[in-house]
Each structure stands twice: as structure tokens, then as C-alpha cells.
Design brief:
Layout: H1 29-51, H2 55-81, E1 86-87, H3 89-102, H4 107-119, H5 134-138, H6 148-154, H7 166-173, H8 175-195, H9 199-222, H10 243-248, H11 255-260, H12 276-286, E2 290-291, H13 298-308, H14 319-327
Antiparallel strand pairs: 1-2
Protein name: Acyl-CoA desaturase-like
Keywords: Fatty acid biosynthesis, Fatty acid metabolism, Iron, Lipid biosynthesis, Lipid metabolism, Membrane, Metal-binding, Oxidoreductase, Transmembrane, Transmembrane helix
InterPro entries: Acyl-CoA_DS, FA_desaturase_dom, FADS-1_CS
Amino acid sequence: MAPKTPEAVTSTVPTSKEKVQPENLPLVWTNITIFIFLHATAIVGLYYAVTQPTWQGWVLGVVSSFCSGLGTTAGAHRLWSHRAYKAKLPLRILLMLFNSLACQNDIYEWSRDHRVHHKFSETTGDPHDINRGFFFAHMGWLMKKKHPDVITKGKTVDCSDLLEDPVIRFQRRFYVPLAFFCGFFIPTFIPVYFWNERIWFAFITNGILRYVVTLHFTWLINSAAHWRGNKPYNRFMTAVENIYVTWWALGEGFHNYHHTFPHDYATSEYGWNRNFTCMFIDFMAILGQAYDLKSVPKEVVEKTKLKTGDGTTTFGPSVEELQKMKQH
């Protein structure tokens, strides 16, 4: 089960007007213990997946990883957090099940934290503020109690629309059994039933190993995509265009664009280019399941580049590389 997002501190954090220093916030030992277990088990799972591989197991691992990724990228992120497009009930149910497979907290909680991240990005009100370091933005934010600013400022973010969706209400009510069933029982049951795999082997490979890998792919959006890369749309923010994250996180690495134009369903101006989630949403639109896809006019993108961009492009050399090229 995914470690729960740390809540506000009640006794160990000052409750007066004294400013709370992030480094003084206490650790969440429950989450730390869970992470130690998950990663230790995943290492064992990786050893067996490499030394005793089956092609069926690898295919299942890749397919289930893609499905869980879409539950986060196309579902919790682009559909519910940003309302970048609309989806009919069958697609919403499918994305809810994929999201349960991902085991990264329920849609409401994930979307709430993400909206807070956008509104208060790079401040103490940001749940995974990159200014507190790469590791903190990657996974350390789940190992410490939330800064009080995350709680107080987060209350100013309206999330009432999320609970108007019966699919979200259903998942939130039954999240624990849904996450266990979709995230661990099914990935273990399929290998055991269809090709007589050992239960423990299926659990630590297609269950735990697959889960840990997908966690890190998602976390890279908060860390690497706020760390190194180009800023062709807005040079005044930490969010960057990171091509590696784009591959690993199904098209979520166009992060400078996304933070500049958060309601664009493609999170990029390049359409399908290295953007598997965009392909999926477009395919669902062809099937009539996705509609009202929001995008940004080309002229608006170009004007924004000229006004606030750093002069680079997503796939081109960085500012430093351009400067070296000019010197030579």
C-alpha cells in the first residue's frame, strides 16, 4: 500500500506565530519503514526477475506499469487535477481502476496535493518543494510531516468539484481494498493462474518490483523535472523540459510547458512526440470516451516563448551549451 501523505504536526511543531523551519519537522517513521520494506523486497524481486525470467512475467510487468502510469497521468493528473479534458463514465471507471493499480493514494488526495503544488510551487506551501533538495522533492516529502504552510495554504485550494464525481467518491470510500486488489492481488493472481508461477515469485516481481519502479517514474516528475533541463516557456520557474522524464513518465517531462499552461491536455506543444499519455487521450477521443480536450493556441505559445522563455527549445541544446557554441 502506498505510504500515506504526511499530515500536519500537532504536538512537535510550534503552534504559535513562530516560523517553522522545514528541517525541524519530524520524520514519519511509518512511511520510512514501509519504504525500506518495499525497496528491499524490490531488490530481491529484481534479482529473481533477471535470473529466473519468464517472457509472460515481463510482458505483464510492462503492460501493468503502463496501465498504472495512465491512471496517474491521464487520470489523476490531466483529467481530475487540471480538468484538461472531460471523460465519459466508462473511461473514468477505467482510469480509476488504473489509478488503484498505481497505489499512489486515492484520486482526491493525489489531485488535492497536486493542485496545492501548482498554486504554491517553490514555496513552503508546496508539498514537494524542490528548494528543499532533489531527494526531498523525489520521495523525502513523504518521509517528513507536512510543513504547516502546506496545510493552511492548501485549505485555500478548492477541491469540491472532485467529490462531485461518483467515481472518485466510490474509490475514496473503498480505496484500501481497491488498491490491494488491483495493485497486488491481480498482478500476483494472473501469473499463478495462467502460467503456474510461484505465488511468492509473482508477488515480489509483478507486485512489489513493478510497484516500486512505477513509484520512482512518477516521483521523477517532482524531482528531475524541476531540476535539470530547458525552460523555453518560462525561465522564472524551476520546472524544466526533461526529455528523460518524458520517456519514463509517459509524456510528463514537458514540465516547463505544463507549469506555464497547466490546462493543456497534452502538457506539450508537440502532440504525440514522446507523449504516450497524449496518444491515449486522443485514442479515447476517437472512441468517443474523451471530449472537450483543452489546448493552447500556437500564437499564445510563441508569444510566451518570446516574453518569458530562456531562448532554448525542448529538444535543443541548453542555455549553457548555446553559450559555449557562441564562444566557438
